[in-house]
Amino acid sequence: MNQRAMRWMTMRLAVGIAATLAVMMGTGLTVTGQTPADVAGDWALTVETDQGTTTPSVMLEQNGSELTGHYSSETLGEAEVKGSVSGNDVVFSLSASAGGVDIEVTYTGTLQDDGTLSGQIDLGGLGGGTFTGRRR
């Protein structure tokens, strides 16, 4: 095969891949082929840690697989959140102050068949726990 034919085939392959990715993005599919679960809304959370139980809330807005929103907690205060959704897997994080120490709080969970969220919380390396959430 000559160089011109090889360039033509390479270009056609690149255009085909780009077109496939564009179609997937337009349908909400991720590169892994999973449609992100719908987790937008106002969530009431229950967090269990070694320090006890807290009941923060988070309002999530969703654009495809990207999450933004607002977090509110008596313990950690008010904060903006950013995160992502891949299939039923959800991750969002926020910056907070705990006892005068700035920490990055990360929630990693899964949207369950019953519509609840459940998973783990990491308190910036200062501990962790579990959480469950229900849409209001």
Which features does this protein show?
alpha+beta; 18% helix; 1 helix; Lipocalin
CATH homologous superfamily of the largest domain - what is it?
A: Quinohemoprotein amine dehydrogenase alpha subunit, domain 2
Helix tally equals: 1
Q: Could you tell me how far the N terminus lies from the C terminus, measured between alpha carbons in angstroms?
A: 63 Å
What's the SSE pattern?
Answer: HEEEEEEEEE
Report Rg.
Answer: 20 Å
Tell me which CATH architecture of the largest domain applies here: Beta Barrel
Helix content: 10-25%
Summarize model confidence as the mean pLDDT: 84
CATH class of the largest domain: Mainly Beta
What is the percentage of strand-forming residues? over 45%
In short:
The protein has 136 residues and is of the alpha+beta class.
Q: Would you give an account of this structure?
A:
By secondary structure, this protein is an alpha+beta fold. The chain folds into two domains: 1-31; 41-135, Quinohemoprotein amine dehydrogenase alpha subunit, domain 2 (Lipocalin). The chain has one helix spanning 3-27, and strands spanning 41-49, 52-54, 57-63, 66-73, 77-86, 89-98, 101-111, 117-123, 128-135. It has an eight-stranded antiparallel β-barrel. A hairpin with a 5-residue loop joins strand 7 (101-111) and strand 8 (117-123). The longest helix has 25 residues, at 3-27.
